[in-house]
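Customer ticket, subject: "Can you confirm the structure for VOC domain-containing protein?"

Message body: Hello, I'm evaluating your service for our small team and ran a test protein. I'd like someone to confirm that this is what the system normally returns, since I don't have a reference to compare against.
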Amino acid sequence: MASNVMRPTFAYSVVYVKDVAKSVEFYSRAFGHNVRRLDDSHRWGELESGQTTIAFTPLHQHETDDLTGKVQSTQSARERAPIELCFCYPDVDAAFKRAVENGAVAVSQPEDKEWGQKVGYVRDIDGNVVRMGSHVK
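Agent reply: Thanks for trying us out. I re-ran your input and got the following:
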């Protein structure tokens, strides 16, 4: 049997953004998350989202650019990052409407999928794709 030392929990999803404070405020308004913290330097922010934290940090910062390389941004609206955030809601249509009313850009209206989920897509204020869906039936 494996020990608990080798069973990590998924702790953070980090979103690299142009303006941490604006992104934290946007996600709070558009998607309904509570702000856990925004540090005084505005270089780190966190939202409460269940067991996993959604964190925000600037696109470029000395500490990480020099250590692990620079974040590559998409160059057009026809491109997307190789990751997307997905949020589940009991009422996808209402959540989608709220997100768009608070500055998200509609990509695809919510629609029923063949696998039993209702899904819609928006872009956040940095152009990142956010999937809004129901739990799979």
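A couple of notes from the result: The chain has three helices and eight strands. Residues 83-136 form a domain with the 2,3-Dihydroxybiphenyl 1,2-Dioxygenase; domain 1 fold (CATH 3.10.180.10). Feel free to reply with more questions.
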